[in-house]
Specification:
It is built from 9 helices and no strands. It has about 190 residues and is mostly helical. The chain has one domain: TorD-like.
Length: about 190
């Protein structure tokens, strides 16, 4: 499962505002090497989309990548990067989810990296960063999957290279949740 944790960490880098072209290209290539070897029906479609994302990174300069990031996630976004926004909008219920996320992060001693400290706790980059640190991810995956499902529904209808990252995050989380559920079943059967 080390490989999956590394995938989450690389996704977290790619889901943050792009600052360093070389760094994001390297992260994308490393992530592609890792997901290429993962055999999972959930991930197959996402792999194809991710290849398009890598091509976008190769042919674009940093300004074009920044512009696409902002178009996708920031000002009047195609797909807000906040997982629980997709479940609750800007309601008080989302605040409850955010408080719960902060509690979960504290319970596990998670300290976000410096580049994420200004983000809300349900930012997709923060969530993938946390998943990259977490050993037993089943409960957390169950907690976030509804938001990821809705996020995928939103982004599937859009044309943006960043769609690949949302689809891959969702696919990886779905496959990971299936793995942890089967693992728990095996423990119960023993």
């Amino acid at each position: 499962m080390r490989k999956v944790k590394d995938c989450y960490k690389l996704l977290s880098k790619l889901l943050q505002y792009p600052n360093d072209l070389v760094e994001i290209r390297i992260a994308a290539e490393e992530l592609y090497k890792l997901i290429k070897d993962i055999e999972s029906e959930e991930i197959e479609e996402a792999k194809k989309e991710f290849e398009k994302f890598i091509e976008f990174l190769k042919k674009s300069n940093i300004e074009e990548i920044e512009e696409e990031y902002v178009r996708t996630f920031d000002l009047f976004p195609l797909c807000p990067p906040y997982v629980f926004h997709h479940v609750c909008g800007e309601s008080y219920r989302r605040s409850e989810y955010l408080v719960k996320l902060v509690e979960i992060y504290r319970e596990h001693g998670f300290e976000p990296e410096k580049t994420l400290r200004k983000e809300l706790p349900d930012h997709i980059a923060m969530i993938t960063s946390f998943l990259g640190e977490l050993e037993d991810r089943r409960n957390f995956l169950e907690f976030i999957i509804k938001g990821l499902n809705k996020m995928v529904d939103t982004v599937k209808k859009k044309e943006t290279p960043y769609k690949a990252l949302i689809l891959l995050t969702h696919a990886l989380c779905s496959a990971d949740l299936k793995f942890w559920s089967k693992k728990l079943e095996g423990v119960i059967e023993c």
